[in-house]
Amino acid sequence: MSTDAAETTDTPQNSFVQTIDLTKRAQRKKGKETSEFSEPDPPLDEMTLDNLPDIVEQVFHAAGWTELMPVQEKAIPYMLDRRDLIVQSRTGSGKTGAFLLPMFDLLDASRKEAQVLILTPTRELARQVYEEFKRMKIATPETNELDAALLYGGVSYGPQIKALKGGAQFVAGTPGRTLDHIKKGNFNTDTLDFFILDEADEMLSMGFYPDMKDIEKRLPKDRSSYMFSATMPPKVRGMAREFLRDPGFLSLSSDQVHVENIDYRYYLVPQMEKDRALMRIIEAEAPASSIIFANTKREVSYLAECLQNQGYDADEISGDLSQKAREKAMRRLREGTLRFLVATDVAARGIDISDLDCVFMYDVPQDREYFIHRAGRTARAGKSGTTIVLATHEDEFQLIRTAKRYGVEIERHELPERELSIQEQATELLEDRLRDQDQVTRDQMQRFVELVQDLADDAPELLAQLVEEVVQQYEAESESESVDAQHA
Q1: Residue 122 in contact with residue 346, Cβ under 8 Å?
Q2: For the segment 190-203, what is each residue's pLDDT rounded down to a tens digit?
Q3: Dihedral of alpha carbons 74, 80, 83, 86, sign
Q4: Residue 464 domain-assigned?
Q5: pLDDT (tens digit, 9 = 90+) per residue, 66-108?
Q6: Are residues 298 and 359 located together in one domain of the fold?
Q7: In CATH, what number is assigned to the domain containing residue 109?
């Protein structure tokens, strides 16, 4: 028996007493002890374009990039050196490129087996990582020899099994479906050299933790592992020790995780008037492309329908939709053919749409970290954008606290004066024209009333065409009169 054990005295020798201090001070101390990481030791010089491996430099330029982002300059050297690493860098800073670029030097196309596994919290993010890798790999004949597999639920197992059995070196997926393939023997993890967690704070949240631990147990012990995320709460840093070995910690955003070139503002609106307020703001802002975030699936469906009823090109994305429908909506947004995407936070994580000029938050997010992830969908890669929040009196204080927590300057604005909708303007225009008609013309119009009633039921688009022509004619006449007045 050890001296320590002997000194525990009056208990029987075969018993064991463990004292757990549950005071807040003790728990804070424990969290600090288990969550603190130091910068990589020894440190490595930042990467420059001139120092990139030749194959990586070719991929970089073929992707259309002109300069390395700060997170790429700092992280790539450690990945090429195969050193475990935790990277915290704000949303839209180039994290995906930071872990994809070195893969083109580290992966061996001649080995027809899985060499890297990248896990993400959502199907959309997994697909985005997969598609970005596919786009980048065509840069050279050598890199184009690399194959990829995409693993997520809601779709058939067949193509995924085919990609795995075909020797895909690059595997991206979500935890649930990835674990299914491992347990069924479709995915041999013994050959993996690299393990990457994208959006690590969400990956290690309690919802994913059991699957993550199950997957981790099945990975080679001598792998290199990496975690990337915009936020890195202490409890997540503590759990990181279970997945990484003595990792270095690179923080490019510990004091500032928000994107600098976003204009933040909020409107104070009663809960029952939010839908109408949103329409007024949209009319005033006239964004070319936007994501509108809501807290519940019911609100997402309701808002998408409201927008469509107002004549806006809108679609929705939430966990209730089929994977095919979600992919279609995301594809349209990326291609610029969809103006409004209404979404739950399933779309907030890592979705990278370069030309998204506005984010609307229909609700203040229940988890304050989602404020940053939602806002970060705009102003990607150095561009500017706008984030607009609809807050009630009840959640205004929470919004202001969240903004202060992340160093965001958010201003309250008054709702814009309501302008007539295009439908209301058209109605007024037609009524004005009817008032100008003489009685003879009004009598002649009666010949077409029955036809119009039938068309309204059977072919409303024919009537819409006539209204559109009247409105365009009026707008052209008004513009012409304005020009004449300026020259007078």
Answers
A1: yes
A2: 999 999 999 877 77
A3: positive
A4: no
A5: 899 999 999 999 999 999 999 988 766 788 999 999 999 999 9
A6: yes
A7: 3.40.50.300
